[in-house]
Amino acid sequence: MEDLHRADASSLRMLAYVAATPAPVLFIGTRRTPEQGGSDALTAALGALSRSGAERIRLDGLTVEEVSELLAREIGPHSRVLAQVVADRTDGNPFFVIEFARLLRARVITNPEEAARLAAPEGIGDLLRLRLQRLPDDTTALLAIAAVAGRAVDPALLSAVSGAPRPDVLAALDVAHTAGLLTDDGRGYLFAHALVRETIYADLPAGRRIHLHAAVADGLQDRLAADPEIRTELAHRYRLAASLDPGYAAQAVEHLRAAAHIADTRNAVAESAVLWRQAVAASTLTSAPDPLLRYHLVLAQATAELRIGELSDARDHVGQAVAIAESMQRWDLVGEAATALTNAGVWSWRTYGTTDPAMTETLKRCLDHLPHGTLAARVLANLQMEHYYSRRLVEAERYGRRSVAMARAAGDPGVLLRVLLMRALGTWGPGTHTERIELAEEMLTLPMPGELEVGALFQYGAALHQAGRPADADRIMDRCLAVAGRLRHTAADVPLAWWRFMRAVESDDPHLRAIGAALDLHRRTAIVTIDELSGVHAIRTAPPGAAVPTDTVWRAAASRNPGFRALIAYALLESGDPEGAAALLGPAAVGEAPDYAALAADCLRIAVHAGAGITSPVRDGMDRILRWSGDVVTYGNADHLGAVDFFISAGLAALGERDRARAHALAAVELCARVGNKPWERRPRAQLTSLG
Fold first, then answer.
1. 449-508, pLDDT tens digit by residue?
2. Exposure of 301 by Cβ count < 10 A (0-12 exposed, 13-18 middle, 19+ buried)?
């Protein structure tokens, strides 16, 4: 597979995926050595290939003997001394060797001393320019068009763009072939080397280059009906020509939109996001920008960014789309844009505990202008989530129930599915797993596109796990992983990677492929909760009782999430720092109702205060967790902390109620053994030993 440095993101991800499969296939890929940085997609692919056991072979310069073999092909018999001179002058670069040899042949130089004194061009481009200067003007003009068009040389396209008759074009290409600038692969002419094309292209004045891109695009237009695959190429060329003429900008928008839709249907989400961004940029260059067109482009861009997990950019662009719709007084479009954030994958589009008053007010104003129906139901579902994020859970519950009732009345299965998914996400908390299981089971009876199926299955699996049914949860998550894998859905990949990571931690299986991958994958996106899960990763991959990294403690101290502070405080307690652990906790959370991390926070706070010998907050907090005796406790869906009874036992022991503490510790051991959570089974076992 040649020229990996030129491959698109989806192709690179596909290569990494296929190379990781256990099949008896040898893959050999090449990339240009000087481009050490490369794109983010290339860097990620090379890392994935390395993890799959790929061997990286650096092609250094040729040896003197190998240089001599190349020289023999170009100039015939020669001395070893001459080969040594050429090797020294070229550092053994094969292309440089060949070009230097051709220069020696052209000047009839065989003497090593004369070759050593020869004023070689400063770079390979200069060598090529020497040869280009000898060509007829019509040949160099055609090569300029060909360089803009691509590596393969298309005589029909050159004829259409230049206006030259086809026989004249072929004759000129024959001249370039004789000069060694083109090669024949049996099907037609190609540039002899990528650097040949790149040198010609780079030497074109900017205005001439832009004009040729437009001319090549015009020349390709007639082929579109027979070959829809050239849509992306047309889009690319008209985009490059957009600054030349507003008409080209309009054509760029048209083709970029069409190419983006094609990418969307093929789940090439990374390419789709790029194409939509380019379409938005090109739309500003048209002679009369259309606000409605810009609205649709910006919203499509935001939707594509949501699909790949670029949540920060997506939120900004949703805000832009909302503003455009409001300027047109189109409340239907305002609602459509504001509810686009529900496409954020299987997690949230905003960090819990944060607020966006402007968006909340926009949704409320929108609701005032919309009739009851599908769009109003979606607006209500988003209002539920906005209030859930800001921990106004009573209002969130009210909006959520209204959204489901309105969606059922509207009779649209697609809208009902989206609303139920938001309802499941917005009811996450202790004791809600039964309702979320019912919601998920209803969702799975509805027709659903792939991404919504991922969301429904993820919510179902997570709720089953919280219900203490890990085998059922794994079965559902396997289905979820299969669907997500077919979609190449980055926004879902991150939560699923964390799920696999924590299931590996629970089972004490360090060999599961999820180990170590979740955090790396998360860092390559803008999906929320990266600070929290960086802390989770740090403490779950360290040996029991290990010191907590300083940066993890700092993250927790700066967090507004009391659950995260409690999680890291407990790790400090286990590392032997009870005073630091108690100090990190801060004040208890005050809210209307428990959110996704509230039970974990309450349990961990009791354990930390008990370990630090501070009994007053233990006594005050026991009522908050006693009601959940017999349940599993989870920190969201990423970290599963075993049984609530373990933390009840710790609190009771601190209060001197040892018999009750033993009973709850034993219950915790039994529950953790049943669900297969080995690390948290060891903790209540140790508690039983200490209680005697």
1. 778 898 899 999 999 998 889 999 999 999 998 988 887 666 788 888 888 888 888 888
2. buried
**How far are the Cα atoms of 106, 112, 518, 590 from residue 84, in angstroms, in the given order?**
20, 9, 51, 79
Burial class of residue 682 in the structure, from the number of CB atoms within 10 Å of its CB (0-12 exposed, 13-18 middle, 19+ buried): middle
Angle at alpha carbon of residue 38, lines to 36 and 41, rounded to 5°: 135
Same fold, 290-495 and 565-691: yes
Please list the helix, strand and coil fractions of the chain in percent, rounded to the nearest 5, in that order.
70, 0, 30
Rounded Cα–Cα distance for residues 385 and 671 (Å): 33
| Domain boundaries defined on the chain | 4-51, 64-120, 290-495, 565-691
**Residues facing residue 190 across a β-bridge:** 152, 183
Whether the per-residue pLDDT at 439 is higher than 70: the answer is yes
Residue 26's identity, in one-letter code, is: L
Q: Let me know: does 297 contact 289? Beta carbons within 8 Å.
A: no
193-212 pLDDT per residue, tens = 666 787 888 888 988 888 89
CA angle at residue 634 from 490 to 382, to 5 degrees? 55
**How far apart, in whole angstroms, are the C-alpha atoms of residue 483 and residue 488?**
9
Residues 618 and 606 sit within 8 Å (Cβ to Cβ): yes
pLDDT digits over 34-91, tens only?
444 457 778 878 887 887 788 888 777 789 999 999 999 888 889 999 999 888 777 6
Burial pattern 6-32, b for ≥16 Cβ within 10 A else e, equals ebbbbbbbebbeebeeeeeeeeebebe
Q: Which CATH class is domain 290-495?
A: mainly alpha
**Could you tell me if 168 and 139 are in contact, meaning their C-beta atoms sit under 8 angstroms apart?**
no
What one-letter code names the amino acid at 664? H
The number of CA neighbours under 13 Å toward the Cβ of 29 is 21
pLDDT tens-digit readout, 547-586: 999 999 999 998 888 889 999 999 999 999 999 999 999 8
Rounded Cα gap, residues 384 and 395, in angstroms: 7
Residue 123's pLDDT band (boundaries 50, 70, 90)? low
Q: In 10 A of CB 607, how many CB atoms?
A: 26
Q: How far is CA 236 from the centre of its chain?
A: 23
Paired residues of 412 in beta bridges: none
Following CA atoms 258, 259, 265, 270 in sequence, which dihedral angle do they give, to the nearest 10 degrees?
A: -140
Mean pLDDT of the chain: 87
Average of per-residue pLDDT across 641-653? 95
Two structure tokens written together for 524: 């390559």
Position 36 scores a pLDDT of 40
Q: Which residues contact 273 (CB under 8 A, 6 or more apart)?
A: 301, 304, 305, 307, 308, 310
Measured between alpha carbons, how far is 29 from 27 in angstroms, rounded to an integer?
A: 7
Mean pLDDT of 166-188: 87
Per CATH, the number for 565-691 is 1.25.40
